[in-house]
Amino acid sequence: MKNKKSMSDIKPYRWRRWLCVFLLMVSPVAGLGHGGEDHGAEQASVVAASTGMVARTAKVGEWEVVIKHPSLEPDKELAARVFVTKHDTNEPIEGANITVTISGVDAAPTQVLAVAGNTPGVYEVMLPPMPKGAYKLAVQVGADSGNETAQFGEVQVASPPVVEASSVNGWARTGLIILAALLGLGATGVTVMRLMQSARSRKGETAAA
Predict the structure, then answer these.
(1) What is the pTM of this model?
(2) Structural contact between residues 77 and 118, judged by C-beta atoms closer than 8 angstroms
(3) What pairs with residue 126 in β-bridges?
(4) Residues β-bridged to residue 57
(5) Quick one: DSSP state of residue 145?
């Protein structure tokens, strides 16, 4: 009886061992939760929203010019908006003459005029149907303080991407990994509970002896 170890001697080591097992089971879920995140610098010139809209921003002179449009699909006329403000004060520029120019590689530039909307500094424009390909996008702004041209670089007119079966399989595989991890956590929890019950039972037997 003198050589028998008490529960107070064994318990700390046992709990450390099962704590390590628990952390190993949790780590896959934590790793998956942060997968695909990009913590790098954001691009201020082009922002794609989850609604399918794209906002392009350019600073020219004292103005900030933003053109917001849906994803450019081939042979579709699309409604867009142009926002013109002073980039220092964010004051809207009213009464400006706005022209959107689209230049194709094998086609002459197409110019469309924008009209003032109901909100100050906001102008409505209809982008013409364009074949699939790469284009240069620019917005000319004429106001009392001068005339400037905002260049937005190259834009792509393309069909919406098709979801491939491999992508679907990838999501299914990720879901199975998460499910397996959760099942492992559940099994670990059951095992820990049983160990706790066993420890309490042994402690009671030791106290009775």
Answers:
(1) 0.56
(2) no
(3) 79
(4) 66
(5) T
